[in-house]
Specification:
With 152 residues, the protein is mainly alpha-helical. It has two helices and two strands, in the order αββα. Strands 1-2 form a two-stranded antiparallel sheet. The longest helix is centred in the middle third of the chain and has 111 residues. It is rod-shaped and about 155 Å long. The N and C termini lie far apart (157 Å).
């Protein structure tokens, strides 16, 4: 055998080994692509119903949000009406009620001041005067200027 024949055999063996490795790699690549295709098919089969359910859920949530928005606007309207009613009632009854209360207070004071013959002799009962017994009466003349001015 000559050197050219040995070189040719080595090249042929090298190409045979290279083709075997490429065949194994292509076989594994084909198997991986088949598994990926099956995975995509399964994911598609499961994802389509999930997406349909998600769409239905989003539509339902949108409907509920529309209802909540309507309720919130109704509550806002009721709040505005209650505020207007409160100010109306305050305006309508506030002033007259204050006037009635003031009138009633004036009438009570006027009736209370004129009770002299019925047992009120104009004296004031004080808790404990200095140097005197507890519950002593102080004559009206000693009560001061403001008491005399009220009577006159």
């Amino acid at each position: 055998m000559s050197g050219g024949e040995v070189a040719g055999i080595l090249v042929a063996v090298f190409w045979a080994i290279l083709v075997s490795f490429l065949a194994v790699a292509l076989f594994r690549l084909a198997r991986t692509l088949r598994a990926a295709g099956e995975l995509v098919t399964r994911v598609t089969e499961e994802a389509v119903p999930l997406l349909a359910e998600a769409g239905a859920t989003v539509r339902s949530a949108n409907t509920q949000l529309a209802r909540v928005d309507a309720i919130a606007s109704d509550v806002q309207e009721v709040t505005a009406n209650a505020s207007a009613l409160s100010s109306t009632v305050s305006t309508a009854f506030g002033g007259p009620l204050v006037k009635v209360a003031a009138f009633g207070y004036g009438v009570r004071r006027a009736l209370g001041r004129n009770r002299g013959p019925a047992g009120d002799d104009g004296d004031v009962i004080v808790g404990r005067p200095v140097g005197g017994p507890a519950g002593a009466r102080v004559p009206a003349a000693r009560r001061g200027f403001s008491a005399r001015r009220r009577k006159g």
